Amino acid sequence: MELNHIQTIVVIGAGVMGRGIALVCARSGFQTVLFDVKPEMLTQAQAYVEKFFHRSVEKKKLLPEERDAALGRLAYTTVAEDLIGDLIIEAVPESLDLKHRVLSPIQAQNSPETIMASNTSTLPITRIAAGLPHPDRVVGLHFFNPAPLMKLVEVIAGADTDPAVQATMVALARKLDKTPVQAADTPGFIVNRVARQFYLESLRIVEEGAATFPVVDRLMRSSGFRMGPFELMDLIGVETNHAVTQSMYAAFFQDEKFRPSLLQQQKVDAGHFGRKTRRGFYRYPEEEERPKQK
Hints:
The protein is of the alpha/beta class. Helices cover 45% and strands 13% of the residues. The protein contains 11 helices and 8 strands. The longest helix is centred in the N-terminal third of the chain and has 20 residues.
């Protein structure tokens, strides 16, 4: 399937990543369907999308008619039978079993030509594709948070992925105004493999009492980073970041450099997931974008 054959894109999962990806697709001219089993997730996603587009108009990045057209291209559904498209992008949690359970019936009800893309950040595409009816149509399409703003997209071919499918996804990323990078099918691909130490060494510095969260973040910002590691983990989701580390630790056969942090595990156990719960490594009072640092 070539890029000009992709008219309708279905996004599975209305969490932070799914809603951002759906927004990007609708903004770029594609008919887009956002699916989630929880109606409240779709309600939150719709509020996020509308707020983003309204702010874009206020900042003069979009014309009002462009906003209205983009909003008109995005539909929301909890009905699995509605999930028919030229491209399916899954953005569900990092569980191989869950991805298989979600994608297998969806691929079965779509055309054999439909491309199935995973937004996984760590799981090998080959393993995801192995449990599906048409592994040659499965590809990795890894966006970064926040998807409407971050330019990079990793495009990953599994062992059975048709090279034409990967090429189409590279072209799609460019159509979405992203910068595609073709990555090998290894745990963590490129960015998450590099970024693990940014997070893990920062966590170890705090665990050892060498510095506090705000001090580490301030030092990293003064070194040129847009955000410090703890601010970034709160933005991504502490539990999501921790799950990625656990996945990579297992994938690299318990290599010590990927050992998960007990401090981060404690945050996950307490339900302190970051901005989404108004508490992570920092507290986030209602409507405040920056953390309250103590």
